[in-house]
Amino acid sequence: MPNTPLEDTATAVAAEPELITPGEGAARVEAGALLIDVRSQATRDRVGALTGAVVVDRERLPELFGKDSPERLIQLASTDQEIVVVCGSVDGSRPVAEWLGANGFGQVAHVEGGFPAWREAGLPTGAGTEAPAEPSA
Length: 137
Hints:
InterPro entries: Rhodanese-like_dom, Rhodanese-like_dom_sf
Domain Rhodanese: 29-127
Radius of gyration: 15 Å
GO molecular function: thiosulfate-cyanide sulfurtransferase activity
Organism: Leifsonia poae
Protein name: Sulfurtransferase
Distance between the termini: 48 Å
Oligomer: single chain
Helix content: 25-40%
CATH topology: Oxidized Rhodanese, domain 1
CATH class: Alpha Beta
Largest sheet: 5 strands, parallel
């Protein structure tokens, strides 16, 4: 069985993607970075949406980001475009950010703490079916 795009990342040589705070991510998006949400539809429905993000299926990175792909995201201006990746945690966003970096995207960062940290920072999110956990004292 062939490797998935994220498994292929393990063999690619790329610099460690930058890990940024939710506030830094929001500032970059405000300045024009592309915000991508790589969480599953079920997770977004349950815990909430990332306002303004382009939803990306992690298993379709070559189709969505490939230079000559007919399915390439229309929001991509160039490989120099800054991209901020958010998942539920860095374990989900790091492989996507690594894949992007290994495939020519030079300005990729991912958000420390993922969507929960983004929401806890008071940044724009849509409601999910599950109420956010109360902060512990």
